[in-house]
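Quiz preparation item.
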């Protein structure tokens, strides 16, 4: 049933198309007959003209044809000018796009170079940071040993007491300054007595 319905629809479409073609054929035949009648009228008129009239008619027809051709030429020139203008605009756009592409590539190249430089600087800074940390640890270790020696020397003086708690740097300096002041006073006394 589906196949039959499909075939019927196709047949109806074909019949509709056939009717349309026949209608167009009738119309074309009618136009052809009218054209033949017009040509026959022109031909009869042309045959009835004198030679001079024929020449004049031919001249008029040629002038009309020339005017038509001139109009066609003018239209073609106008279209050509528009096309040339469009081509010029497109070429300008293409040139602009090409320049933008070149500029973009240069920016990308500069960006890549800048990235490489930044990466190189970052690696150099990391290396320097590592060296600084190593140096800092070394200096801290030396400072701690020096501090311990100072504390040991400061509190190994006769009459001094060992610290009960961990000393701050200010307390160590204060103890050292006290010892230095005492020794300076002692030296001054010795000088006053004339002793070397």
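Solution:
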């Amino acid at each position: 049933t589906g196949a039959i319905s499909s075939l019927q629809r196709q047949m109806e479409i074909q019949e509709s198309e056939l009717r349309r073609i026949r209608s167009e054929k009738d119309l074309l035949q009618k136009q052809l007959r009218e054209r033949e009648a017009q040509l026959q009228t022109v031909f009869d008129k042309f045959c009835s003209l004198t030679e001079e009239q024929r020449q004049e008619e031919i001249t008029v027809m040629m002038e009309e044809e020339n005017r038509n051709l001139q109009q066609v030429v003018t239209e073609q020139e106008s279209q050509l000018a528009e096309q040339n203008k469009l081509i010029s605009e497109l070429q300008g756009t293409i040139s602009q796009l090409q320049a933008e592409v070149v500029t973009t590539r240069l920016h990308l190249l500069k960006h890549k170079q800048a990235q490489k430089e930044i990466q190189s600087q970052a690696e150099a800074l990391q290396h320097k940071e590592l060296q600084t940390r190593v140096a800092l640890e070394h200096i801290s270790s030396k400072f701690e040993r020096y501090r311990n020696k100072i504390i040991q020397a400061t509190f190994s003086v006769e009459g001094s007491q060992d610290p009960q708690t961990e000393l701050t740097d200010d307390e160590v300096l204060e103890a050292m300054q006290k010892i230095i002041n005492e020794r300076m006073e002692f030296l001054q006394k010795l000088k006053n007595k004339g002793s070397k």
